Every structure is written in structure tokens, then in C-alpha cells.
Amino acid sequence: MDHLELHGEPPTNLTTLVVGFGGWIDAGEAASGTMRHLVRRLSASHLASIDPEEFFVFSQVRPSIRLTAEGVRAIRWPRSEFFTWQPSEGEPGLLLLRGMEPNRMWRTYTKLVLDLAEQCGVKRIVSVGALLAGLPHTRPPRVTGYSTDPDWRARLEDWGIYRRPTYQGPTGIASTVLDAATRRGMSHLSFMGQAPHYLQGAANPAVRQALLNHVTRLLDIELDMSRLDEAVKAFRAQCDQAVGNDSSTRSYVRQLEEEYDSETDEAPPPLHEEDLNSDRLMQELEDFLREEREGDGEP
User: Fold this and answer.
1) pLDDT range class, residue 279, cuts 50, 70, 90
2) Is residue 99 one of the residues assigned to a domain?
3) Is residue 119, in this structure, part of any structural domain at all?
4) Among 57, 172, 219, 266, which is most exposed with the fewest C-beta within 10 angstroms?
5) pLDDT digits (tens, 9 = 90+) for 154-196
């Protein structure tokens, strides 16, 4: 396949593709963080990479410089990587795709993804995403789901999180992939997490944890999430401290808590930018989150 570099022979019994993209619909880096966590904790094997040259505008999604363990500077390019995981010999496994949303040639990119998925035997797709919403960091993040598969839809309804999509407007690469997959006869399920909008820009381990809980429950996977549990507690404590230093934000969070606890669908409107000092909040969270954003130290 053009633009695709295979690092091994594709298995043919990976019946489910799990995918999450950075960029669009990745609030709190929850979708991309979910995929990183799955790849690491499952010790998934690297199967293939998509050459970024044709799909990214590097002045918009810039490569980054990182220091290796030996102290050598190395360039890290925007990546789209496939990984494989099988629970045991011969049993159906997972194809995992993590990467940044491309800037261009979406139809070509989508065809690459789905061609490889079909080659691996994929019949259904699980997509994860996250958006900013009016809910407090002091409460469990909400996750909603939608599926074209009747059995999966029934499970979402049993869990009380099924939501039929009503959104109209600009969309992202995940929706493009799922739309094309439907035309190929693949079913799909989408999980959408919600991250507090007043913490925009912060990597949010609590939303990632919520998405992972739903994905692993759906696919009957056991993961060690003890380090992530610790990260969530530390993150919430740091947020409590940062919010406590700003009276307007503190009052707004209490309002969000009341709305959340009343289980209404109507969230209070966001504070005006001059009232919500998100810059200061982000500055106070910066030291704690630096290792999280760098990635290698992520639980």
C-alpha cells in the first residue's frame, strides 16, 4: 500500500479496530492518552506506520525535538501507528490505531486505514474522543456512546450512556473513517468523554480513565490502571488547589457541581473570559502536567 510501512505480516484475526486521534475532539488529551495507555499496558506489537509526508502540513502540526536516553537530539514527526494485540494464540485480537489527525488527503488516509483493517479481518470499530463541556473536575467525567451494532447499542442502553447523535457542523477524521467503514459493511461504536472546559489545555487523566473503563468493559479486557488511579487523584488535588486560589472560578465550579448533582442536561453558561482566569489556572498546573504532556512518563 502506498504511504504505508509494514513492520511485520498483518494477522488476519483482528476482528476489532480501536482508534483515537489527537487534535480534533481530543479534549484533555483523553483520546490520544487512552490509545497510548492501551498500547503500553497491553504490550501491543508495532505493525505498521503511515508516512506523514503527504498527510501533514508541518508548519501547522510541527515535528518536535526530543532528547534520547543518550542525550542525542532526535526529531519526532507526527505519527499514525498501528499495533496488534491478541489475548492468546489463535483467539481474535485487536488492531489499535493512534495518531494525530492529518491536515490533508483525508479520503486517501481513510482508505489506507480501512484497507489495512480489512486485511487484518476487522469487522467492527471502537472510536474514542473527548470534548470540552460544562462539568466540574470534582465529579466523575461523563461518557456517552453511540453504536450502529444492535448488540453494542443494547449494552450502551443498559449502561445508561446511549445517545443518538444530533450534532451538525464541522467534523474530524474519526467521523470520516467511521462513515467510510459503514459503507464497507463494518459496524462501529463511539465513546465520547467530557472534560471541564475551564481546564482546557490540561492533559486530563480522569477523562482518560473514564474512557478506558468503558472500552475495557466493552471488550472484556483487564488492564492494570493503578498508576492511572494515582495520577487522577494527584490531578484532582492540584486542580482543587488551583481553583481554590481564584474566587470567580471557585464559585463557578460550585455552580457546576449543583447542576451535575441535579442530573439536568442544562449546564450553566461558561464564565466570561475576563472572569475565568484559565491562564493562571494553567500556570499553576504547569509543573504537575509537564511530565504528562511529554508522554514518556505517562502512566
Assistant:
1) low
2) yes
3) yes
4) 266
5) 999 999 999 998 888 999 999 999 999 999 999 999 999 999 9
- Residue 225 corresponds to which amino acid? M
Q: What is the rounded distance in angstroms from the CA atom of residue 83 to the CA atom of residue 86? A: 10
Residue 286 lies in a domain: no
Grid cell listed for 257? 457541581
- Residue pointed to by grid coordinates 492518552: 33
Number of domains, the chain: 1
Inform me whether the pLDDT recorded for 292 exceeds 70.
Answer: no
Residues in the chain: 299
Place of cell 485480537: 93
DSSP character at residue 26: B
Write out the three cell numbers for 91: 483467539
- Burial bucket for residue 209 (CB in 10 Å: 0-12, 13-18, 19+): buried
Q: What are the grid coordinates assigned to 81, written together?
A: 501507528
Q: For the beta carbon of residue 286, count every other beta carbon within 10 angstroms.
A: 12
Residue 88's CB: how many other CB atoms inside 10 A?
Answer: 6
- The CATH number that applies at residue 53 is 3.40.50.10900
Is the pLDDT reported for residue 274 higher than 50? no
Q: What's the pLDDT at 86?
A: 92
- The residue range of the domain holding 110 is 4-227
Report the C-alpha gap between 268 and 156 in whole angstroms. 27
For residue 237, being part of any structural domain is answered with: no
